Amino acid sequence: MKLLVVLSLVIVAIQGANVRHQRQFPDDFLFGAATAAYQIEGAWNEDGKGENIWDHMIHTNPNVIRDVTNGDVAADSYHNYKRDVEMMRELGLDAYRFSLSWPRILPTGMANEVNPAGIAFYNNYIDEMLKYNITPMVTLYHWDLPQKLQDLGGFANPLISDWFEDYARVVFENFGDRVKMFITFNEPREICYQGYGGDLKAPILNSTAMGTYLCGKHLLIAHAKAYHMYNKEFKPTQGGQCGITISVNWFGPATDSAEDQMAAEIKRQGEWGIYAHPIFSSEGGFPKEFSERVAEKSAQQGYRRSRLPEFTEEEKTLVKGASDFFGVNHYTARLVSATLYKEAVPVPSLLDDMDVGHNAPDDWATSASSWLVLAPNSIFNALKHLKERYNNPNFYVTENGWSTYYETGLMDDGRVTYYRASMESLLNCLDDGINLKGYMAWSLMDNFEWMQGYVERFGLYQVDFSDPARTRTPRKSAFVYKHIIKHRAVDYEYEPESLVMTIDEGH
Ligand SMILES: *[C@@H]1O[C@H](CO)[C@@H](O)[C@H](O)[C@H]1NC(C)=O
């Protein structure tokens, strides 16, 4: 009897191990890599491109960037786009997510003047991908607003929704015959909280009381107008999809107490629920508990109305359901406490409105970025929550990646560990029935990491920023990712024989 039990345990263990190795991604699962215009393109003032808010901020105040660099040249993809596509082929990517520079297409931000050189550049980039069966996934806005629109208030001005709709129409008219996946905005939280409510991204407005919320509401309306316009004017003939990407890191409770569970919920609502709920929930509008908290604090602070603006019923209806998929940028997680780990924050502000603390346990591996730690199974935790809350829409992980320092060089084992952990978490999502359709690694190559300049590197390919040719060299993680894509599975034993990259047949 004992022997039988032991034997069956051994069999179960062997089966378990096999399942772990056999778990596969479906053939139509879209594997890709991602970048953003300002971070890679360079050519900041070439061929008629207008000034964006990063050009303006850094040229006016270079010291806001950690290593006093900028994106004037970056990885120079404007001149190296063919090499970029060659890298996609080397990796065997199914898809490539990149963004369009609004002021490269519309130098003043407005649609009265379209820059033909800007259109030509993106046509070339797209056509080069399509030549090799790589699906372009195009983000319309990844943080580089035309400065002329910022001068008019940017996302604090409700008219941004009309300006964005006009820009989006130019994009769909010019590229929608070949591009079938559009993302309107990349990461509303980073645009609105970091750029308007704080001083962590351009335009560093630091308008802590209301900046985040005004921007959030206007951005959501801009997204919805562009979405409906695509649906009405372009989808019938072009047949593509239009969605949005929201940064969704995981926030679980530090303990099982009711207080900590509520704290985690408030954190989730304040960090990403205020952008996700109006679009993906069945009731629409900003999430309830967080709205009540801001209203209460606003009243205590002497405001005559909540600092979180209401949506009219018409606006609520416009925004609700306005997305064909949910793009999730996911990197990390924190444990949230109602009482512990709190830091001094400005009052009033989003952080004060949430009024919770968070922590990362010491045994979660750390990266080159202070905010980025490897949390166990966190893609699954985030997507499982979104699935349940928002009725399992189609999901794409549109960014996920790991930072190293330049000094780490090509043998980036920390990134390899991170990507393999991500793959296991993605497979857990698929096993759970989450409608997850694809995954974009951040990033195809090293690039200008915003306020961190070139200090923190996220590339599968290293870029030599001291070389005028901006030579790209694959890291170990590039080979590991290529192996995963090719076999649709994670092989923990795999080690590249050398770091010499070639293009496989059929790519
Ligand atoms: C933003 O505001 C906070 C306080 O509200 C202040 O500590 C910080 O220095 C400000 N940042 C800038 C760039 O002015």
TrEMBL record:
Family annotation (PANTHER family): GLYCOSYL HYDROLASE (PTHR10353), LP05116P (PTHR10353:SF36)
Catalytic class of the enzyme: hydrolase
Pfam families (UniProt xref): Glyco_hydro_1
Xref: InterPro entries: GH (IPR017853), GH_1_N_CS (IPR033132), Glyco_hydro_1 (IPR001360)
Its EC number(s): 3.2.1.21, 3.2.1.46
Protein name, as recorded: Cytosolic beta-glucosidase
GO biological process per UniProt: carbohydrate catabolic process
Signal peptide feature range: 1-16
Keyword field: Glycosidase, Hydrolase, Signal
Gene3D superfamilies attached to this UniProt entry: Glycosidases (3.20.20.80)
Any GO MF annotation of the entry: beta-glucosidase activity
Similarity comment: Belongs to the glycosyl hydrolase 1 family. Klotho subfamily.
Catalysed reactions, as listed in the record: Hydrolysis of terminal, non-reducing beta-D-glucosyl residues with release of beta-D-glucose; beta-D-glucosyl-(1<->1)-N-octadecanoylsphing-4-enine + H2O = N-octadecanoylsphing-4-enine + D-glucose; beta-D-glucosyl-(1<->1)-sphing-4-enine + H2O = sphing-4-enine + D-glucose; beta-D-galactosyl-(1<->1')-N-octadecanoylsphing-4-enine + H2O = N-octadecanoylsphing-4-enine + D-galactose
